[in-house]
Structure formats: C-alpha cells, structure tokens
Amino acid sequence: MALGAAVRAAAEGRGSLVVVAGPGGIGKSRLLASGREIAREAGHRVLGARCSELERSFPFGAVRQLFEPLLLGGDGAVGELFGGAAALAAPLFTAAEVGGEEDDDALFSRLHGLYWLVANLAAAGPVTMVVDDAHW
C-alpha cells in the first residue's frame, strides 16, 4: 500500500507525497483516515486539514487547519518551532494577517517561513500531513 510505504520512508528520513485521486464517493476520505491512523501507530506527528469551497477565499486556510491545533496545544515547543526563519510564518496564524493583501515579497516570506516551520517540526521526528479535498 502506497500510504504504508510513505510512512515507512518518512521513518527512514525520506519524505514523499501521495496523491489519492478518483471520483466522488469511492472512499478517498476513508483511505486518508486509514493513512492517518497508520502514521499515528508508527509514531508520526499527524497534522490534518479538510478543504472545502470556503478555503478558496480564505488565504492559507488549509495551512491554518494543519498547524493551529499544534500551535494551540500549549506543549511548550511552539517557540522552538518558530525559531530561525520559521518566524516568517508566524503572522499567518494571527487574525490580523489572514485575508490581508500581500505583495509577492511578503508571500514568498510566508512560504519560506512555512518551509522552515515544517523543517523544525520534522527535526523532532517524522511528520505526516494529510489534506483531504485539496482540490478546493
């Protein structure tokens, strides 16, 4: 199974991407739920988001769904996650920044910060991110 192989690869320090595609109603969401469980059982930190039409007009909506539970969890490691260049992503998680018009430089800065946020998170162990209905 591709999801199990991706989980094993992550445990070995090799990242991957799995795309599940098909017509509506065939069980893609259930398959992703199984993948999340496989990752949890393997000791991964699992982040999840489920997109809808609403995210089209809500900048970084899926990103906020992925990371806000972690950031609001209060486990004391949040400061470390935003260390270094990851600090550039911090404004994405404040209400004042969401939905604001940003120029290309600010957008690049936020994306660069997100890269380092994930890198900081992965430094502590394998991470699995699951985004259901990403086409929205």
Gist?
This protein has helices at residues 2-11, 28-41, 61-72, 78-81, 104-122; strands at 45-50, 127-132. The protein has 136 residues and is mainly alpha-helical.
Topology:
Layout: H1 2-11, H2 28-41, E1 45-50, H3 61-72, H4 78-81, H5 104-122, E2 127-132
Parallel strand pairs: 1-2
Protein traits:
single chain, 136 residues, mainly alpha, two-stranded parallel sheet, 5 helices, 9% strand
How many distinct beta strands? 2
- Distance from N terminus to C terminus (CA atoms, Å) equals 26 Å
**Fraction in beta strands:** 5-15%
Helix content: 40-55%
Shape: globular
Backbone CA Rg: 16 Å
Work out the oligomeric state of the chains in this entry: single chain
Strand order of the largest sheet: 1-2
Poorly predicted ranges: none
Summed over residues and divided by their number, the pLDDT gives a mean of 86
Continuous helix count: 5
Give, in order, the helices and strands. Answer: HHEHHHE
Based on helices, strands and strand pairing, what is the structural class?
A: mainly alpha
Describe the structure.
It contains 5 helices and 2 strands. The protein has helices at 2-11, 28-41, 61-72, 78-81, 104-122; strands at 45-50, 127-132. It has 136 residues and is mostly helical. The protein is globular, with a radius of gyration of 16 Å. Strands 1-2 form a two-stranded parallel ribbon.
